[in-house]
Task: structure prediction
Amino acid sequence: MSKRKICVVTGSRAEYGLLYWLFKELQLDEDIDFQLVVTGQHLSSEFGSAYRIVEEDGFRIDHKVDLAIGGDTPKDIAQSMGRGVIGFAEAMDQLRPDILLVLGDRYEIYSAVQVAMVMGVAIAHIHGGELTEGAIDDSIRHAITKMSHFHFVAAEPYRKRVIQMGENPDFVFNFGTPGLDTLSRLDLLTREELERSIGFNLDHLSFLVTFHPVTRNQGSPKKAMTALIQALDSFSDSKIIFTRPNADTDNKIINKMIDEFADLRQSRVRVFTSMGQLKYLSAMKHVDIVIGNSSSGLSEAPAMKKPSVNIGDRQKGRLKAPSVIDCEGNKEAIIASITKGLSNSFLQSFENMSSPYKEENASSRIKEYLKLTPLDGIQKKKFFDISPFTGY
Result:
């Protein structure tokens, strides 16, 4: 009996961190032929050529799909998507996987899923059913859901939403989020080890900041970033670790402003294109607060009982723990939210909270399901009506 071929696509550092332990599960199972395709930011020198980290972690890359990421206008992104479709067609033709496994909502993942759908490959999707109303990722995620056959969601409300979209409940599973497996499996660095590894002392007050473009916002990314930088500068005694944004529309403006801010404050600001999973999560553990609009502020930070300030609409619609402070993207609101997040009363208010994203050994459960589930007839997908459809 031949091994089941499961192909996983990764296109960004953040996504790779969430998938790391699932990669390990697939790699070590002797009954699975684990195939790995890297694309997007992993292959861009501007974003740190992170595919090297994937290889250093011991994973064999079976195919690279270069999107030739250059500019950051909507036209540039759309053209990258087109190059992705062409490249993934070549990859799928060569690898002939039984299942394509993807996570999330990015445009390069959308390209891969389109190809798999046309070529008759079963598609498994992680993190469907979520909402991010401030980003085009929201529409991409739902489109991927409708093309997928198996769904692994991060929370019960998301499972219900995927079913509401017409997906068969028999193939929608709430196994938790694989990204949180890291917190129970990885030995994070001590504060001293982290400071040595990044050459930067955190001192008595420290922030971890990640701010991505808000791709559905018609406002100026420069205005939004200016508000954030001015707010951060109000805490003049703080140490700040920046991680750069994703390869989305207008990322270059944000990167330029981060660099200019850091150049003038070299004693207290460090900027990283990619910290890697160990350093990033260790930094999250040891800083005083997480700031920005990254999903990690809603998932990993609450699991660590770490306060986070979520700025603007990028993550609007996602489940949030009591440790997350939503705020508008202006200087005064950001300052007030950081001040609140650092206060003893706020820190004590969520000491006994439970995160909406549970640690359920998701990586192992997803692997076992995809390894054993029958694939016969899976392509004959039907729309599942929650109640009998009677027309209008």
The chain has 15 helices and 13 strands. The mean pLDDT is 91. The two ends are 50 Å apart (CA to CA).
